[in-house]
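[Q] Does anyone have a clean structure-token version of this?
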Amino acid sequence: MNISRLGLLACVTLASGAIAACRMNGAAARIAGGGERLGVATATTGPATTAAEPTPCASPGLVDATTVAPGLRVDLKYASSDNFLGRNVYGDLRSCLLVPDAARKLGDAARLLAKRAPELALLAYDCGRPLRVQRLMWSLVAGTPSEPYVANPNLPAASVHNRGCAVDLTLAERATGKAVPMGTAFDAFATLSEPSAELSFFEQGSLDGEAFANRLLLREVMVRAGFRPRANEWWHFDCEPAEWARERYPLIE
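[A] Here you go.
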């Protein structure tokens, strides 16, 4: 495995090939290849500090994540035409609305990132998502090669987004808000977007070292904060397993 382009000093498989913890320029990084909960601590980052209580919003049970996640930037892609639907399906919504548990975890991730890479910030692309929007998304991808990238709203669990317990996000320059390279755009329904395949893409040269390192850093801080990565989308993180979310949080209609 040739990973010298990242300046890695050591790399060791920790658990069934699902995680490789790598020493990258003196800082720990993560390669999370699947959907299992990853709670492995790193030597370079301490536990996140506790934030103030999230501020409730008009939507029942949801809070504005920016009230507890320091430096969080928000650019809701579904409130614009810059998405695979090609139109705004969120109306005037511009806030990242999540259940309190997810908002607190996102705050923890933001603080971890500030310690690991103070020049960067989290940039949220999608947070709580109404079920009606999920149905619209599904209608466009059902029966197509893009189907695996969108949760079926007709199943009991639907999407964890539909319960305010998932966030789609990236890293951005703190000073400018500009998203850093991740190898693909958000919502690029392609294998190059998949964490489960990115190590192979990196070795083949399809995913460059900068984008690969950025994905590792994003996944590190999110996993350490308690989120669960998704195997086929580098940008997607659930605050709880779908089954648990279904039992604890109501659907956003």
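[Q] Thanks! Anything notable?
[A] Confidence is low (pLDDT under 50) at residues 1-52.
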